[in-house]
Amino acid sequence: MAxxxxxxxxxxxxxxxxxxxxxxxxxxxxxxxxxxxALSALADSGSSLVGCQVADRLIMHTQTIVDDAGRExxxxxxxxxxxxxxxxxxxxxxxxxxxxxxxxxxxxxxDEQELEYLPEGIEKLPYMGTLHNNDEIDRxxxxxxxxxxxxSISGVGLTTQNISEAEEIQAxxxxxxxxxxxxxxxxxxxxxxxGDILDRKARAxxxxxxxxxxxxxxxxxxxxxxxxxxxxxxxxxxPEGLQTEPETSQHMLAFLExxxxxxxxxEETYGGGMTDVSLEQVLKWDPEVIIAWDSEIRGGAYxxxxxxxxxxxxxxxxxxxxxAMPNLPWAWCDRPPGVNRIMGLQWICNLLYPDVYNIDIIxxxxxxxxxxxxxxxxxxxxxxVVGDSYPPVPxxxx
Length: 398
Prior knowledge:
This protein is α/β, with parallel strands linked by helices.
């Protein structure tokens, strides 16, 4: 277990007028008086441990939690948390869904297309960096923007790297970093944990029930599909479509959870993924379906795969089963491998097995944006998001 952080560099909710030499405020006096009364009652009952916890909450505005890495942390109470940041855009998705008004900055740079599908106000926030792909977070910006708490959320089980990164940021800034396991089957639990910390229990429960329902729904369908009948998929990444992921990569996990099999027999590139492969290898694998980055937003090879004669002999191209992954406001299956994958699960499963998972993907897109982001899409907007990625949808530019 990691040692408890003292948070001496920054104590959110502590100080105020009194810390600036202006004396104690009336509100602080009332809070302290209430705390002392509670402590007195607890002292009479002999409960010293609980008394310390009440003192932390009522006087110091802190609470002690144990995060998903088993680390005991002292963090601000919900009323003292005004500004939140995260170690990556993966965790950012959770906070955007749960409590966007307390975002202290962004871990990704959004363009106008992406902002159209996000809650209002995000365009005004400063970009402060990310730890993804060995990038850096601006530590000075964290302090300048008065960040009270940070979250590090994983797409798979937490790693020693997640823990060491959190410890390093805490040591440098005094800001507590809470580690949360965001594995597919724990997304609902992650929302509930965040809701407890941030006093957004009702909203967290709404989100948790939604993601739990979708995950259980897709999982139950996939279990009915024999392994021999599962469809081989090639994930075409990069501008030429010649980078991909093996089945061990977390970037492939949404495809596998949705019932696909991975044709790529290659080494995993740890961190950002995207292993280089040759066209000869793809021809040998001969996938039935190709999922590619779209050409317009992500600069992928979707258009080239459809029109380049070098790809023409692959089964997926010959049968017209090449699709562009939707990307607004995030890629649906990975990057980040966060809550956005819940939409990717539905899309992939319905794309591959419409007979057993018969849903209206346009309606499900509208539901996702409404529930997860509080954004109401018209059917035309949902069609634009889905784009060239679903057979029943006319392949037109809207």
